[in-house]
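User: quick one
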Amino acid sequence: MTLLVEVRDPCGLAEVVGRLGVPMQFSRDEEIHGQDEPVARLFRVVRGVVRTSRVTIDGRRQIGEFYYAGDVFGLEPGPLHRFAAEALSDSEVAVVKRSAVLQAVGEAAFNAAILDATRRELDMAQAHLLVLGRKSAVQRVASFLMGLAGRRAAGAVDLPMGRQDMADYLGLTIETVSRTLTQLQGDRVVEFASLRRFQVREWPALEALAA
Amino acid sequence: MTLLVEVRDPCGLAEVVGRLGVPMQFSRDEEIHGQDEPVARLFRVVRGVVRTSRVTIDGRRQIGEFYYAGDVFGLEPGPLHRFAAEALSDSEVAVVKRSAVLQAVGEAAFNAAILDATRRELDMAQAHLLVLGRKSAVQRVASFLMGLAGRRAAGAVDLPMGRQDMADYLGLTIETVSRTLTQLQGDRVVEFASLRRFQVREWPALEALAA
DNA sequence: CGGTTAATTGAACGCATTCAACACGAGTGG
DNA sequence: CCACTCGTGTTGAATGCGTTCAATTAACCG
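Assistant: Done. Structure below.
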């Protein structure tokens, strides 16, 4: 657990935000920051899961990313939040002003940390591009489940988001997601104990399906 | 022209790379840097157009971005190039070692510039995500043409890449791209003077189609 | 228990793909 | 100048995947 955080946070931004941040509670679907708000604070997930999303002009919803315990979010390419952030379930988030972090660690370390976090965002975005641009429904869902299960190597895995969130994230409809999950379960690749909890039965098969 | 460069390069990275860089010539489809190579240099397009691309395990090709005159490329989230870079047409590229830039401008300015460029990459990636995740073929092609035409407000616009590159970039097949272009032309929204040169006839219609 | 929301399933449709044939343009050599 | 070829782009017909719309079922919570 500690190792994971260290690996994903070589510049210490997550640690600093966690240390300086004020813990705040958010309930299911509560907004943590809004779309088009000015960027002023940094956030770190302490408990629960957070999603970033935005709505396009024609009403379609796009999920930016899902953030899990330890992850930092609130970084944006520009001065405004391009995405809103909401708690998926009841969550605890450490919140701190950017200026406070800047003051605490100095400008050089701050920039380095922001750069590092931005790089990680870019990395995720590019991985996601491959999924959306070139993968079939089964491949998308399989990749997604692998990503979730990868966080907890074996045993039952929590599926913190609903089908609609999955669908918006994967660029599919809720019906296709549902059908695909049913199919994967029918093929004994994964097994759902409940709607929000599953276990990988056949890792090689899942990897093959994720292509 | 100068204004455009300034707007897109507030931290001067493009200017520095252009100034320090050694101009190199690349012919059509020639590789500028390879996939999985270590990141050691920065590049700036002087003349021509450059594409970044990578091939997945199963042989599908993904286009990262297209870079035009003035654009900086060669930035990556990690220590290795996730994408290869190739010249689309005969091009001139200014090449400079990262270490040389670092030494020339100092660590603080270097980091700021890299951060800024990385942010722009992230911005492009997220815009692209919206296209790939939620848009139809017509919307994708229309958006793409708008993006190209936006660089040169009016008159004939150069289409520097072939249909296959467009298709890979937009997550479509070459046939669908071709059909869509034909359709847009039939609807008098755009007009192709030749295969690689077009003009926007109805801006409002094109914007509407791009959604 | 109902009442409500979320998820699944079914059937028909439509868009993009696939596979195949054809057109076009540029370059080459007769 | 024409014939030939090769690469690239276009067009056609059939298929299939994911969507759409609608109905049903399951889960959750009082």
